[in-house]
Design goal:
This protein is an all-alpha fold. It has helices spanning 5-28, 41-61, 66-86, 99-110. Helix content is 62%, strand content 0%. The chain is elongated, with a radius of gyration of 16 Å. The two termini are 32 Å apart.
Length: 126
């Protein structure tokens, strides 16, 4: 049972769009600057939102094993990085130089591991 590429790419785009809107709202209301790097309060709030959105997407996919889950996570991250390259860098030209940017995407790629379908394993007698 392999990767559903339509879901992987679709959820990757959806996660990115939601986060683009979240960051736009935070910047628009002056809670963050578009140049902010590091882990301020609103950066952490945005990270938590990203984790929740990614977890909901991963639960919807319900990957059957950890390898597949990591594959989905990597696709989600790569889609986001590509969209950031073509769109977000128009607003935040130096975003790729922020360590917090890369840490966020590494965390995003790992989130689907928490959504792997658990199967009941019979304990053998020792």
């Amino acid at each position: 049972n392999g990767m559903n590429w339509k879901k992987a790419l679709g959820f990757g785009v959806l996660i990115w769009v939601i986060m683009f809107v979240v960051f736009s709202i935070l910047v628009g209301y002056g809670l963050m600057t578009s140049e902010e790097t590091g882990w301020g309060l609103w950066s952490i709030v945005a990270l938590i939102i990203m984790l929740l959105v990614t977890y909901v997407a991963a639960r919807n996919i319900a990957p059957g094993n950890y390898g597949l889950a990591l594959g989905y996570g990597v696709v989600f991250a790569v889609v986001g990085i590509i969209l950031d390259y073509f769109i977000s860098t128009k607003f935040v030209p130096n975003m790729f130089s922020a360590m917090s940017y890369w840490v966020s995407y590494i965390i995003l790629a790992l989130v689907p591991l928490s959504a792997v379908k658990k199967t009941v394993v019979q304990n053998s007698q020792m």
